Amino acid sequence: MVKELLRKLSDAHGVSSSEGNIRDIVRAELAGVVDEFREDAMGNLVAVKRGGDFSIMLAAHMDEIGLMVQYIDEKGFIRVVPIGGWYGPVLYCQRVILHGKKGPAMGVLGAKPPHVMKEEERKKEIKIENMFVDVGAASGEEVKDLGIEIGTPITIDREYTDLAGTRVTGKALDNRVGVAMLIRALQQTDSPHTIYGVFTVQEELGLKGAKVSAYSLNPDCAIATDVTIPGDHPGIEKKDASVEMGKGPVLVLVSASGRGLMADPRMTAWLRETAEKKDIPCQLEVGTGGNTDATIIHLERGGIPSIPLSIPARYIHSPVEVVDTADVEAGVRLLVEALKSRPEL
């Protein structure tokens, strides 16, 4: 079962450029399973299962969106900048963890109370630039005594929790879901090909880690495991997001209306045929927004045939993301079965 692995990954903390905790979990889970670990200068972790000359890159980004300390005032309040794509109101009044030099320190995100706002202020979105972190300190010196300084990374304090049936909620399921899928696939696969399991960094800041690793490895093809938005809850229409939770992993044919990725049709055919032969449910998506590591991988070297394999996830880029673990399990099965063969390139 993938649930407990996903719990471990979701509850771990690793904002973009500070993914060390996630790397440690990956190494522990794959020790004795892969033939080699490599870690590059950016922090990408490559787990290699050696096979024949044909090579397949499987990429999953480790990083989560978070915040970083920008300024500490004389009263001990901390101003922050977002690391990754936050919607301001989601952050207001959240509890956070500041990962300082002396260990984790707890804090809360505050802002002007609505009770003292003017009517026009209440109608406006609360912006991150108007928020601050309160760690309970009475001065800037007290904050520094906690080991907090400019540049300290910050993550949301939220624990993974089971919901009804096979559904779960937690922070950073974007993209610890993809990491969990990749770990399980590497543990179970018996492929005749060389498999590069690449756990990438800084995807949330512009797909940076995947660019470096794809150039270095130069695989014959690539799959990026990530999450995507379903259109199965109030506030969104199926015409805007056609996939649903509980109906299997998603082959993303188009990312960002083609400005990102047009999935290679040969990769699509390979995965679709595998799903049909093995009776694994899967869905198709043509997306108008959002990108994955596959968007940058396919542009490296002379072009690398690529496709995202995504899991429907509600409320992404929030502390309460929701996925159906049955979709994750199906995604693992699809990867394991597909890796027994290869696309016709």
From TrEMBL:
GO terms, molecular function: aminopeptidase activity; metal ion binding
Coiled-coil intervals, chain numbering: none
Entry binding sites for Zn(2+) 1: H61, D174, D226
Binding site for Zn(2+) 2: D174, E204, H317
Positions annotated as active site in the UniProt record: E203 (proton acceptor)
Domain of life: Archaea
Keyword Protease: yes
Cofactor comment text: Binds 2 divalent metal cations per subunit.
Cofactor requirement: a divalent metal cation
A Pfam family: Peptidase_M42
Family from the record: Belongs to the peptidase M42 family.
PANTHER family to which the protein is assigned, alphabetical: AMINOPEPTIDASE, AMINOPEPTIDASE YPDE-RELATED
Official protein name in the record: Peptidase M42
Source organism (scientific name): Methanoculleus sediminis
